[in-house]
Amino acid sequence: MRLRKKPWVSGALEEYNDIVLIKDLLCAKTLDAGANLGEEMQKARDRMKGHWHEIFDRTAPLHVELGTGKGKFISEMAQRHPEINFIGIESQQDVLYYVAEKIREKELTNVRLLVFDVSHLLEIFAPGEIDRLYINFCDPWPKVRHGKRRLTHRTFLDKYSIVLADGGKIFFKTDNRALFDFSLEQFAEKGLVTDKVTFDLHKSDFADNVMTEYETKFSGMGTKINRCEIRFP
Ligand SMILES: C[S@@+](CC[C@H](N)C(=O)[O-])C[C@H]1O[C@@H](n2cnc3c(N)ncnc32)[C@H](O)[C@@H]1O
């Protein structure tokens, strides 16, 4: 999801300080800049890693969506499940702004958002801290040489295996059959258990599906949606 650059977003996000915890502080560009993370960044990281229950001011299961897009999914899930703490991660600040708007509009207190790159997940979550990861319609990166950027690539799975709690799961949906097949191979290669696999979610008996923006768009064009749940044995 690419949006035209909106110079006003940085300022506008100031109004959402209670929801958006990281704006551009820990984005990949900054982190990749070098080993010197800087004092401010280190502090932000230390405030979060292993401290998410304190940030939400309650102990509750922690569900994280990777690549929220404009936030239709996370805002509806958080509304349906007030008993869960949700975190939305999105690398584009201009996109995350729309998520913050939805969370504020619905007056949800169980969501926090980060402009952040999923590759650096281990910087902000302690081992076993997350109960569920949602990966919805992640970028397919069709060129073979870009395969490592897919959020279901084994290098990402290694990171998820660290931050997920015992019994934690990944819920994965995509319209892209080639990406789905690739992902199933990656899960198998890593010895992960894949449950409830469907190649046509909307015709399956899976209840309680919350649609994302991409899902609405592609299923509206007749594309079948693939879905599965992944467990780490
Ligand atoms: C194809 S869109 C899907 C958005 C939404 N999940 C949906 O289903 O409508 C993928 C989103 O993931 C974000 N994204 C891609 N790679 C990311 C990464 N490494 N870290 C965080 N966000 C990422 C993109 O900016 C984009 O908004």
Description:
With about 230 residues, the protein is α/β, with parallel strands linked by helices. The chain has a single domain, classed as Vaccinia Virus protein VP39 (Rossmann fold, 3-Layer(aba) Sandwich), CATH 3.40.50.150. It has helices at about 10-15, 30, 40-50, 50-55, 70-80, 95-105, 155-165, 175-190, 215-220, and strands spanning about 20, 60-65, 85-90, 110-115, 130-135, 165-175, 195-200, 225-230. Strands 1-4-3-2-5-6-8-7 form an 8-stranded mixed beta sheet, sandwiched between helices. Bound molecules: S-adenosylmethionine.
Structural class: alpha/beta
User: Could you please say which CATH topology applies here?
Assistant: Rossmann fold
Number of domain modules: 1
Strand segment tally: 8
Provide a quick synopsis of the model.
The protein has 233 residues and is α/β, with parallel strands linked by helices. The chain is 33% helix and 21% strand.
Keywords:
233 residues; alpha/beta; Rossmann fold; 8-stranded mixed beta sheet; 8 strands; 21% strand; globular; binds S-adenosylmethionine
Strand and helix map with partners:
Layout: H1 9-13, E1 20-22, H2 28-32, H3 39-48, H4 52-56, E2 62-66, H5 72-80, E3 85-90, H6 93-105, E4 111-115, E5 130-136, H7 154-163, E6 164-174, H8 177-189, E7 193-198, H9 213-220, E8 226-231
Parallel strand pairs: 1-4, 2-3, 2-5, 3-4, 5-6
Antiparallel strand pairs: 6-8, 7-8
S-adenosylmethionine binds at residues 1, 67-69, 89-92, 95, 117-119, 136-139, 212-215.
